[in-house]
Amino acid sequence: MGIDKKTVEGVAHLARIELEPKELEKLSHQLEHILAFIDKLSVLNTDNVPPTSHILPLNNVLRKDETKPSLSIEKTLANAPAKQGNFFVVPKVIE
């Protein structure tokens, strides 16, 4: 598949970037080489290869979700500068 300068210009317009004529020529050649490499990869048999999201085996490092008791309303509002009933009072930010 050939990538001409007009195609690169269209993609550059969509990406909202300006390219000089020399850059258009260079990018069209680079994109052509990338697509040729992808065509080579499409020939490979990947039937027994599991899909991966990362090349290294990663494990989730987060702790497990556990239900714990929450703070009481009194402790939660203890240092509030202003409160009304069980709620914080904050200044109005919408005009």
Plain-language structure description:
With 95 residues, this protein is mainly α. It has a domain at 5-41: Glu-tRNAGln amidotransferase C subunit, N-terminal domain (Histone, subunit A). Helices cover 38% and strands 4% of the residues. The protein has helices at residues 5-14, 21-41, 73-77, and strands at 83-84, 87-88. It has a two-stranded antiparallel ribbon. Strand 1 (83-84) and strand 2 form a beta hairpin. The mean pLDDT is 88.
Name the helix and strand elements from N-terminus to C-terminus, one letter apiece.
Answer: HHHEE
- Strand content is under 5%
User: What assembly state would you assign to the polypeptide chains in this entry?
Assistant: single chain
In the CATH classification, which architecture of the domain at 5-41 applies? Orthogonal Bundle
**Classification by helices and strands:** mainly alpha
Q: Indicate the overall shape.
A: elongated
List key phrases describing it.
95 residues; Histone, subunit A; 2 strands; mainly alpha; single chain; two-stranded antiparallel ribbon
Per-chain topology:
Layout: H1 5-14, H2 21-41, H3 73-77, E1 83-84, E2 87-88
Antiparallel strand pairs: 1-2
Helix pairs in contact: 1-2
In short:
By secondary structure, this protein is mainly alpha-helical.
